[in-house]
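Researcher: Sequence recovery benchmark, item below. Answer with residues only.
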């Protein structure tokens, strides 16, 4: 917390100096436009340093916030054009991160173990092992069947058109998670649902209710959700990107 306070004071003092020499004009709105990108840069640097010192932190999130904050600052000084919502344009960075993760991790070794039913091949679990796919998920074919789903991506988009789907008479849980991408759901007005949506950086729009920014979340459920026999239970999580749910 002291790093954030120190950063705010440093940036605010710098802006005051620029105003006094006629380079910038200060008001609270303009000040905040300079302050929060600088905070992102400082947090990014801190997380990277903490990671290299083995004191927690994250080089992935640290470098992402460093790049994101730096691009916002370059926009403020009119070097480039880059606004907050352009964060979704940085999703290819996650492919780069995946490449470094792939280099830094070995494949999980196969282990042959004996069981009462014979021999079975499995994989030894390691603490750092992880896997994410890259690509798009589209469910928009006529009469596609809605079933419980758990979809995850390193980077990519999700498009689910429930107006074209066969939805059974039950509560159907659907979980979607990704490091970067967009989620777009089309839901008929006669289908009840509840949703828990969150983004680390980006925007959420659920049938007209919107939030955007850093660490944003939104919960929503239809009026008759609990009494309905056919309903969707949606859990959507993105690190960076946008979530949109529309009625059709």
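Model:
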């Amino acid at each position: 917390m002291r790093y954030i306070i120190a950063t705010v004071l440093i940036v605010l003092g710098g802006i005051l100096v620029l105003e006094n020499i006629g380079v910038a004009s200060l008001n609270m709105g303009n000040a905040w436009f300079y302050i929060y990108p600088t905070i992102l840069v400082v947090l990014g640097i801190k997380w990277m340093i903490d990671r290299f010192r083995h004191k927690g932190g994250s080089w992935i999130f640290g470098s992402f916030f460093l790049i994101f904050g730096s691009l916002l600052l370059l926009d403020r000084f009119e070097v480039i054009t880059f606004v907050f919502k352009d964060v979704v344009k940085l999703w290819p960075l996650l492919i780069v991160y995946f490449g470094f993760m792939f280099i830094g991790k070995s494949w999980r070794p196969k282990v042959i173990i004996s069981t009462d039913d014979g021999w079975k091949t499995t994989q030894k679990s390691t603490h750092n092992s992880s896997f994410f796919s890259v690509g798009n998920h589209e469910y928009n074919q006529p009469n596609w069947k809605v079933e419980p789903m758990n979809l995850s991506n390193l980077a990519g988009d999700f498009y689910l058109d429930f107006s074209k789907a066969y939805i059974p008479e039950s509560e159907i849980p659907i979980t979607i998670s990704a490091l970067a991408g967009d989620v777009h759901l089309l839901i008929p007005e006669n289908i009840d649902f509840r949703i828990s949506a969150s983004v680390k950086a980006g925007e959420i729009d659920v049938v007209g209710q919107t939030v955007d920014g850093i660490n944003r979340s939104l919960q929503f459920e239809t009026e008759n959700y609990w009494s309905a026999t056919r309903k969707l239970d949606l859990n959507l999580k993105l690190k960076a990107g946008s979530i949109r749910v529309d009625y059709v």
